[in-house]
Amino acid sequence: MASVDFDSLLKNIEMEQRAPQPLKESDVQALVFKYLEDRDLDSHPSLSGIKAKSWGQIRFMKSQGIKKGIQI
After folding, report:
1. What's the pLDDT band for 65 if we cut at 50, 70, 90?
2. Which of 12, 66, 72 is nearest to 44 (CA)?
3. Which of 3, 23, 35, 71 is most buried as measured by Cβ atoms within 10 A of its Cβ?
4. Phi first, then psi: what are they for 42, rounded to 5°?
5. Largest alpha-carbon pair distance within the chain?
6. d(C-alpha 42, C-alpha 58), whole Å
7. pTM above the 0.70 mark?
8. DSSP class per residue in 49-67
């Protein structure tokens, strides 16, 4: 992630700290994936974090009928 808007991230962190109920981990993960998707960065969740998708993985997921983490 070469171009990250740190000002908006800091603003979100400040809002998070002021919120009476902080966001759940799943909500934060959804926000991160939405951020990456808005910038057309192909990524997928993994046990060690977020990884960039490879063409091999994309072909495999299509062959299995899986699109964006949802089986079709």
Report:
1. confident
2. 66
3. 35
4. -75, 125
5. 45
6. 9
7. no
8. EEEEPPHHHHHHHHHTTEE
Amino acid letter, residue 18: R
Q: Residue 3 phi/psi, 5° resolution?
A: -115, 90
At which residue do the structure tokens 């109920």 appear? 21
Residue 67, SS3 per DSSP: strand
Site of tokens 């990524």: 43
Closest to 9 in 3D by CA, of 27, 30, 33, 35: 35
Contact 53, 44 (CB under 8 A): yes
Amino acid at 64: Q
